[in-house]
Input
Amino acid sequence: MAIYELKDKHVLITGAASGIGKELSRCFAREGAQCILCAHPSEAIKLMEFSEELRSTYGVKTWSFAEDLAEEEGPDKLYHQIKERIQVIDVLVNNAGLIVYGDFHQMDITRQIRLVHVNIRALMELMHLYLQEMMARGEGRILNISSVSAFQPTVHHAVYGASKAFVQSLSEAVNEEVRRSGVRVCTINPSYTNTPLIKGGDFPERLWWYSISGLSDPAVIAKKGIEAFKKGKSLYIPGVKNWVIHILLQRISSRKLINYISYYALKSRL
Ligand SMILES: NC(=O)c1ccc[n+]([C@@H]2O[C@H](COP(=O)([O-])OP(=O)(O)OC[C@H]3O[C@@H](n4cnc5c(N)ncnc54)[C@H](OP(=O)(O)O)[C@@H]3O)[C@@H](O)[C@H]2O)c1
Output
């Protein structure tokens, strides 16, 4: 498959103010893409500073938009705000995401529903809005930031893994529906990565699983992820070890055994 060139493409990235989204934005700007950066309103100033940094470092055009994607009207408002200033989005990167750590029954249901709104509903709505335009043009890319958590239940953060399983299933099914056109839906599936999502919040500092998986660098994930995306890979798991653990071992092990191991491997070691 031909390399998907990013120069002068209009790339919209949600959750661009930190972590993987920030590093992806940097990579897109380095490739010469025009970046439409989106973040939660609480990060609006940080986002504007980052937008200016990309513009001065890479000489690309940038725009910044702040919207709360957990709000029911959030995705639609974001879409219309952007539409007023930029007509065509070539690449939508659905990166914004939340995690809630703790056993399902003990965790505040409002926080878990908020996670569903951001990780599932907002992603699905933005994907639907932009996909219609892409299909009408016969050109475009959706890049959903999924996770290796999409491939097996994530004990002690059950709703997070369930949300990523949804993202994965939706992305693969829709990609099959559209891939005979010039449109593609791709995912990047990182393992645990050193970002504010799992650092500084209530996610445990120590998990037994980290001794096997380690913690990835978001800049490395973004760089490798964009290379795979340009090559047209519809699903990309950074790191051979992660592929072996999350794809190969899943196929040859019993689900019951994997869930049993996960209970201990993903339990906080305070
Ligand atoms: N870190 C990992 O281990 C890991 C592994 C696999 C996949 N991922 C996925 O990678 C993506 C990026 O996560 P990250 O690790 O880079 O964490 P991060 O730095 O916390 O980035 C998540 C971004 O989403 C934004 N966001 C959250 N709620 C939002 C809302 N209601 N409205 C608008 N924006 C909102 C956050 O903004 P605020 O900071 O203002 O909330 C933040 O900028 C997520 O989809 C995550 O599930 C992460």
